[in-house]
Amino acid sequence: MAEVKRVGMLTGGGDAPGLNGVIRAVTMKCIEDYGHEVVGLKRGWKSLLDPEQDTVMPLGVEDVRYILQEGGTILGSSRTNPYKKEGDPEKVVKQLEEFGVDALVAIGGDDTLGVAKRLHDDFGTQVIGCPKTIDNDLSATDTTFGYDTAVSIATDAIDKLRTTAKSHERVVVVEVMGRHAGWITWGAGLASAANVTLIPEVEPDLDQIASIFEKRAKSGEKWGLVAVSEGVTLSEEFMTQNAETDEFGHVRLGGIAETLAKEIESRTGIETRHVVLGHLQRGGTPTAYDRILSTRYGLRAAEAVNNGEWGKMVALRGNEIVTVDLSEATDETKTVPNDLYKAAETFFG
Amino acid sequence: MAEVKRVGMLTGGGDAPGLNGVIRAVTMKCIEDYGHEVVGLKRGWKSLLDPEQDTVMPLGVEDVRYILQEGGTILGSSRTNPYKKEGDPEKVVKQLEEFGVDALVAIGGDDTLGVAKRLHDDFGTQVIGCPKTIDNDLSATDTTFGYDTAVSIATDAIDKLRTTAKSHERVVVVEVMGRHAGWITWGAGLASAANVTLIPEVEPDLDQIASIFEKRAKSGEKWGLVAVSEGVTLSEEFMTQNAETDEFGHVRLGGIAETLAKEIESRTGIETRHVVLGHLQRGGTPTAYDRILSTRYGLRAAEAVNNGEWGKMVALRGNEIVTVDLSEATDETKTVPNDLYKAAETFFG
Amino acid sequence: MAEVKRVGMLTGGGDAPGLNGVIRAVTMKCIEDYGHEVVGLKRGWKSLLDPEQDTVMPLGVEDVRYILQEGGTILGSSRTNPYKKEGDPEKVVKQLEEFGVDALVAIGGDDTLGVAKRLHDDFGTQVIGCPKTIDNDLSATDTTFGYDTAVSIATDAIDKLRTTAKSHERVVVVEVMGRHAGWITWGAGLASAANVTLIPEVEPDLDQIASIFEKRAKSGEKWGLVAVSEGVTLSEEFMTQNAETDEFGHVRLGGIAETLAKEIESRTGIETRHVVLGHLQRGGTPTAYDRILSTRYGLRAAEAVNNGEWGKMVALRGNEIVTVDLSEATDETKTVPNDLYKAAETFFG
Amino acid sequence: MAEVKRVGMLTGGGDAPGLNGVIRAVTMKCIEDYGHEVVGLKRGWKSLLDPEQDTVMPLGVEDVRYILQEGGTILGSSRTNPYKKEGDPEKVVKQLEEFGVDALVAIGGDDTLGVAKRLHDDFGTQVIGCPKTIDNDLSATDTTFGYDTAVSIATDAIDKLRTTAKSHERVVVVEVMGRHAGWITWGAGLASAANVTLIPEVEPDLDQIASIFEKRAKSGEKWGLVAVSEGVTLSEEFMTQNAETDEFGHVRLGGIAETLAKEIESRTGIETRHVVLGHLQRGGTPTAYDRILSTRYGLRAAEAVNNGEWGKMVALRGNEIVTVDLSEATDETKTVPNDLYKAAETFFG
User: Fold this and answer.
1) What fold, for B6-145+286-331?
2) What are the two backbone dihedrals, phi and then psi, of residue D307, each rounded to the nearest 5 degrees?
3) DSSP output for A27-46
4) Is C349 helix (H, G, I), strand (E, B) or coil?
């Protein structure tokens, strides 16, 4: 292990509440416990291909002490991938040298960590990874930070919609984040007592959905809430069937929530609306859980830097934060297992 | 004034946080202070045209004591207007008699109160009105309940989006409720420090908007937030220009937020996204302000019932809740005056 | 009116959510609309008696753009009163000159504004006042900023305590801010559906309180919530009666909430606890309502500076922010009028 | 395993957010998946010694569907322990028979579960336990429900106090729940970026605390936050030294927060205040995390009932909910291990 002097840190890809918690913990531990110097590299991998005047951001203890409460990332981000263009990886390595960075902490999803892995393998770059995905769909780690916050925001939104759905005797279909895996939707559906929860892992059973609301209507409750992942799909035929012609004569296709809403209304006769939560789920202050989890990830990453555990990433296994090989970052998407979905089904109705 | 024995209450039209506060205050004051009996009539005017088994809902003090915290309305609602069909007004009057209702408290927007007014004028129905509109656009009253809650929800959403916008160096355009008047958007834009706020009362100046974000970008802040009312319009030509062809070959038109977002991105080169808040703004627990305001409205309505102030509605004038003629309910829409918009413009940038 | 070049601003006394909103609005309007220069003077009147290196804080538009969401005051505060010591007022005037401050905006309670008034009268100091008190007890203005936030925090706390009180069949007495006037307690008691609300303006009727809980217990609800202002008093004899001897042999007197709790338990036999909310009510992000109100106060203060309305203070009258003479700041405490308390009593039980 | 027909459920001891989640999950799974009948037994073990008219509460799916969002417990509670008095255990067993209860789910802390264990051992009572403690100090299970909510409430309170502490240049000492173990305080201190966190497991170092604030003051930050568990102790001598004489001539001893506050002020010269959070931490709606965790506990308890796993309790081990022997409920208190405290110390300053 080369003697570490200057630790560089970057955040890549979409943001997740808790990024600043990781940045803070890495910074404070590296400085206070190990005596290293820490600099932020703004805007993800782009910082090392196309540096700007503000790219290198020296980080001191007091610079980061109170960023824990802030969503987003003080280091900005980009979706730049150096491995997309020939010669770029070499540029990255060279730039790290020019910046005098001895160790790099890369915080990001499978793209960001995939790049970190390759730089380590191809050039021996001294890098530690920290996984980040609001979707909680990285096999490598049990729970990712930002997930709890996203679930909380979606849960709160569905709770808010309940009163209006009940008052107006409507069904409201809420589109929740989750393109490939339904973790956020599963969590929010469970925590909000949604009447039906639909995730990409399971094909929607339109008959089952309709009959749930018909049964509720028969017993006097002509309303309800559906939580559906954005990644749930129905056949193209079905989607087109439900398109409508707008006031300008254009045919307008809806998203999954809107399409499902029309289908539910047409099958059950209950007025149905839809809401798309979108980017709201990424933002705002992290929950206490995410502040603590991201802090723990960051502490272990700082330790890995100090130990020279290059080519590793931090991961939560049970109650422990450990290090595992960066290759695990690009493992299969972790989808919601069938038993957890069945557990949620107990509460449909 | 006939001796009042049984007070009926109904809520019509869209829901607004605070409806239960009115219901609660009318019920508790009528019973405890005046010794009247109170019944809820479920589902708005429909309750008197098409009564169901659960239409008449006896209300006691303990039934309503803790509904103050609940959004929505325990009396349900409908958009039914008895004056749409001949003979229906007579049916309503007859049904009120059959239910033994001596006095009716109608809580709703201009439609609901318009019906109340006509029943009073045409048949001498003993009715008191209480205005309700989340949009705060009733000339008759200074502030409507539910408005503060809607502004708070929209403000909180824009605050949440700020961190993600800043981290990703994007502009996010947020579509806020407000079809004819921009009160909610004005309030939320002001309270969330949005960089630009657009309301239906003022034609959007696309050059001004683009230049604000270009100026921010020049000074290193390549991001921002725009709050726009759903009722803001741009020319059909403009809307069509920004339509896109979807994966199925259909031309898809966006809403105002989506269209503006594309325009801003195309003019400034800054990545721009949009979010539509929709029904989230109607739901959930009312703010403390709305709980207090709705309670005050309800107390005065109960007093008006006891005094026999038929054909009146309660209204907030400055700091007092007074009664005014029900005809004021259907006065012009109260739009955001120019000086308040200019005040908001001070903060654009 | 002398030509205004440099506007100084200070905040004195206790903090209130919304102070930063005022600071922001004064700064942005003075700079953007009038071309004035703005400096903050840190730590209230102390800044002009005992300046430190960081006392003068130049304020630019981008320095304040996002402070609206923050509680507290970026200008710090002090309880220093220059009129307490001979020669100090002269020092203040001289220091303002040395700092090149042409116009002073003083944001504070009756102490701070009282000083502002005297400096204006005695020395012709060009000062504008902006009233601040979380207690909403300034006669001069209809509603002060920070009040809505304090009520919201107290309401939320009482709502939280309801579930635990009900589960354990206890009465919980909650001590809310309000030494001389019961506005916050009145508001929170009303908004939280507390079973009893006690304010300094009205002598507590212990028999009434006990009988309310006895009646609730008889009907199966052996629990409840009491909201009591810190400024409610009972006789010394009564307070001493309820003191207890601690584990070290010391006699320990409780506060009003604790003492009342013991009395209720002893009279009714229902287990009773107490909670003192304290400083929690001053802190945190202002509500949307307070952000808007404080912004409106600040805009009008900036206008008053530009107009040279020296010796005035801004005030809310109905829906308008106007200017009134600074002497009104030290008028009688505005207490909760009897009719508003009677309105609240409707809901006791 | 006798064929289960009627499942009884009770909740004992202090309440914790999430109890209703357990009750709901047990009820819905027992009824929907297994066809069992479920009744609630109100007021803990007291229900079986001193039954009242409302003690037995039949629970159907729709009775519990939406209680997930509610704090507290719909089954009430008591601190009654049948093993305190001779003959009472026999009464309990007899009463269970008379109520026709075949299987009992006991949700509570070590007292409640200790009784469950003994009834099983002494009489063969068919009982399943579910652990409950907001303090997260049961060795038997990795995380208890209600803990995340308590940490979130305390974190939010400390965040609120930060702005007022900073504005007034004060130190605020916040007393957080935790008599024997400092989990809640540790979590809240970490998540709120408190400058110092003190837990019962570690003797407070007053010199360290004072020097942290002196150092902050030297660098211009004359303020800060301290999170301290209620169970932290200092010597009697120390506590008495800091007692004060009240206006009635009585010597008044403070709690740990108040005493520490005085000590910090006297050592550093920085104005210091204290706040006791108390019962606020138990109440209100559970976080999404706690709703999900409590639901998972309840599902596994229902399964255990169906399987006849008598004398067991459900427990979280890593990511799995398993069953373990009820004897583990009364194992040693799980205190905060030294490495987690050291992790928190990284952030003191």
Assistant:
1) Rossmann fold (3.40.50)
2) -80, -15
3) HHHIIIII--EEEEETTGGG
4) coil
pLDDT digits (tens, 9 = 90+) for D265-294: 999 999 999 999 988 888 889 999 999 999
Chain C residues close to D220, C-beta within 8 Å: 54
Render pLDDT for B258-314 as a digit per residue (tens, 0 to 9): 999 999 999 999 999 999 998 888 888 999 999 999 999 999 999 999 999 999 999
Most D-contacting residue of A195, A347, A348 (CB-CB within 10 A), to test interface: A347
Distance, in Å, from the CA atom of C153 to the CA atom of C159, rounded to the nearest integer, reads: 10
Q: How many other CB atoms are found less than 10 A from the CB of residue D139?
A: 16
Angle between the N-to-C axes of helices C147-168 and C288-307, in degrees from 0 to 180, rounded to the nearest 10: 160
How many percent of chain B have pLDDT more than 70? Answer: 95
Catalytic machinery residues of C: 135
**Which residue in B14, B160, B239 is closest to A280 by CB distance?**
B160
Q: Determine the Cα–Cα distance for residues A260 and A246; give it in Å rounded to an integer.
A: 18
> Beta strand C37-41 with C56-59: parallel, antiparallel or unpaired?
antiparallel
A343 has a chain D CB within 8 A of its CB: yes
Name the band, by pLDDT with cuts 50, 70 and 90, for residue D1: very low
Residue with tokens 């008053």: C304
Q: How far is CA C67 from CA B48, C14, C18, C299, in A?
A: 52, 18, 10, 15
| Contact indicator for C176, C277 with CB cutoff of 8 Å | yes
**DSSP-assigned beta bridge partners for residue B107:** B11, B130
Q: Rounded distance, CA B14 to CA D174, Å?
A: 44
C166 burial via Cβ count (<10 Å: 0-12, 13-18, 19+)? buried
What is the DSSP secondary-structure string of B20-36? HHHHHHHHHHIIIII--
Q: Does B69 contact C193 at a Cβ distance shorter than 8 Å? A: yes
Distance CA D56, CA D65 (A): 19
Detail the residues of A annotated as belonging to a binding site for diphosphate: 14
Three-class SS string for D2-14? CCCCEEEEEECCC
Active-site residue list of A:
135
Q: Under an 8 A CB cutoff, do B29 and C346 touch?
A: yes
Q: What are phi and psi of B177, to 5 degrees?
A: -60, 150
Angstrom distance (rounded) from CA D144 to CA D130: 10
Fold of the domain spanning B151-282: Rossmann fold (3.40.50)
Fold agreement between B6-145+286-331 and B151-282: yes
Q: What is the mean pLDDT of chain A?
A: 93
> Is A29 near chain D, with CB under 8 Å?
yes
Contact call for residues B234 and B268 (beta carbons, < 8 A): no
Any B CB within 8 A of C65 CB: yes
Q: How confident is the model at residue D251 (pLDDT cuts 50, 70, 90)?
A: low
Amino acid at D183: W
Q: Are C216 and C223 in contact (CB under 8 A)?
A: yes
Q: A168 and B77 in contact by Cβ < 8 A?
A: yes
Which positions of A make up the binding site for Mg(2+)?
Answer: 110
Residues 6+ apart with CB under 8 A from A339: none
Could you report the predicted ipTM of this complex, rounded to two decimals? 0.94
> D266 — phi, psi (to 5°)?
-70, -30
D148 to chain A, any CB pair closer than 8 A? The answer is yes
Q: Do C152 and B288 touch (CB under 8 A)?
A: yes
> DSSP letter string over C193-234?
T-SEEE-TTS---HHHHHHHHHHHHHTT---EEEEEETT---
For every residue of B106-118, which 3-state class applies, written as one string?
EEECHHHHHHHHH
Helical ranges in chain B per DSSP H: 19-29, 61-64, 88-98, 110-123, 147-168, 183-191, 206-218, 236-241, 256-268, 288-307, 338-345
Q: In chain C, where are the structural domains located?
A: 6-145+286-331, 151-282
| DSSP letters spanning A264-289 | HHHHH---EEEEE-GGGGG-SPPPHH
Of A242, A231, A226, residue with least CA distance to A173: A226
